[in-house]
Amino acid sequence: MLRVLKRLTLLLLALVAIGAAAFYVLYFHRAALPPAPPHARVAPVIARLPGLAACWVETGKTFSRFSIGMTAGSILVRHPAGDLLIDTGNSSHFRQDVSAYPFWLRWKLQSLAGQLNPEVPLPDLLRRIGEDPARLRWAILSHVHLDHAGGLMDLPRLPVLMTHEELQFANNPEIQAKGYVLAAYTKTLPQPGAPTLQFEPKAYEIFDESADLYKDGSVVAVPLRGHTPGSVGIFVNLSPTRRFFYVGDSVDDERGFEERVGKPLLLRDSDNDPALANQLVSRLSQLHEKVPGLTIIPAHGRSAYKKFFLGGPLSCVSGQ
Ligand SMILES: [Zn+2]
User: Fold this and answer.
1) How remote is the CA of residue 212 from the centroid of ligand 1, in Å?
2) Residues 63 and 89 in one domain
3) Cα-to-centroid distance, 138 and ligand 1 (Å)
4) Is the pLDDT reported for residue 266 higher than 90?
5) How many Å lie between the centroid of ligand 1 and the Cα of residue 8?
6) Which residues contact 295 (CB under 8 A, 6 or more apart)?
7) Based on the structure, what is the number of domains in the chain?
8) How far is the centre of ligand 1, averaged over its atoms, from the C-alpha of 113 (Å)?
9) 91 and 105 in a common domain
């Protein structure tokens, strides 16, 4: 009897050890990455624009009491020439939207992106900060995954800025079958043959191409191919010194570019080109070294938002 008990205890301990190791590898282990090849910096000249402001519109969060807390939602850029939304978080009908997928896929989506579902729909949160959703000029998506494009389902008819590569990716049935891109969401996007965002061969910071959305240097998009083929990053320059760079899911949190380490295994699952995605993390790390005053904001990295938006969710920062 005692021997059986001893064996059972050993078995239980072994199972706990295996479980802990698997948890560590899935969630916490991050590989050190080699540095990116040196790249010259083209520092932009930034004008101070009256009326420019950015607001953090958080629609979903998880583990928010801890430093590893994650967030999802949108950043609103108030601009005299018309306001812009950067990403839109999950749809307020997320569960319904993923219900057509087979059980395992549905379970995966619900236990990853589904943790960041909105309690209050994005248009209502916008109204809380005095923004009329009907008066928005446009939205730009860092990429088309469901936890970034879903909120567009609550804002139909809003023009969306997207590259040709990302539109092709969004409309690819093989990609849709994997679940990170929902076919139903493509109706909120531009027509597949009509990209609305094109880059010019004009260097910006350490990137070779850029698109100056308002033609005044306030909001500048650059390609960040890797996580998806048409992922983009968005520089928002509220003043010469008050700037942030929203990088979508190119990096998952600040540790990625501060320590130059890859994403944990669980998050690498959604990288369309894992090798390119890793190179991009090294690139962002180089940018962080070269431009320490620039706040890099990963889409889900809650602590990075808190450093820029000192008033927390639903607060705004102006350039004045
Ligand atoms: Zn995401």
Assistant:
1) 24
2) yes
3) 20
4) no
5) 42
6) 243, 244, 245, 304, 307, 308
7) 2
8) 7
9) yes
Let me know whether 139 and 238 are in one domain: yes
Same domain, 186 and 293: yes
Tell me, what CATH number does 57's domain have? 3.60.15.10
Cα 277 to averaged position of ligand 1 atoms, centre (Å): 14
Can you tell me the mean pLDDT for 153-161? 93
Q: Distance from the CA of 63 to the center of ligand 1, in angstroms?
A: 16
CA–centroid distance, residue 140 to ligand 1 (Å): 14
Report how far ligand 1's centroid is from the alpha carbon of 143 (Å).
8
Print the domain residue range for 312: 34-318
Tell me the CA–centroid distance for residue 129 and ligand 1, in Å: 24
Q: What is the mean pLDDT of residues 216-237?
A: 97
